[in-house]
Amino acid sequence: MRDDRLYQVLIAPRITEKTTDIAEKHGQYVFRVQETATKPMIKQAVEKIFSVNVLSVQVLNVRGKMKYGKHPGKRPNWKKAFVRLQSGQEIDFLGVK
Predict the structure, then answer these.
(1) Which of 73, 1, 9 is nearest to 35 (CA)?
(2) What is the pTM of this model?
(3) For residues 16 and 41, what is the distance between their CA atoms, to the nearest angstrom?
(4) What integer pLDDT is reported at residue 77 of this predicted model?
């Protein structure tokens, strides 16, 4: 796969209390990815961008919420990827040492 396509697969890391706890306990990191991304594409993108070895990738399709009231509608669907790294490796999103 071309490098420019790999850089478009990962949209943003999901940094919350829950994902930080998952990262510390299980060595998994959570990313928001394109809806068309596959597990091998996500694995290649993470390995290329962050220079780490990925053990596994789990994908979750998140359905958008329905909104009612004055402005009814629906939030868009999106895809979340849980990426497990080899032990001893980590990704530092903040760049703090």
Answers:
(1) 9
(2) 0.87
(3) 24
(4) 96
Q: What is the DSSP code string of 11-71?
A: EEE--SHHHHHHHHHH-EEEEEE-TT--HHHHHHHHHHHH---EEEEEEEEEPPPEE-SSS
* Mean per-residue pLDDT, 21-38: 93
Confidence band, pLDDT 50/70/90 cuts, at residue 12 = very high
Q: Report how far residue 61's alpha carbon sits from residue 79's, in angstroms, rounded to the nearest whole number.
A: 5
Band of the pLDDT at 88, cuts 50, 70, 90?
confident
CA 62/CA 47 separation, integer angstroms:
24
Nearest Cα to Cα of residue 61 among 46, 47, 44, 81: 81
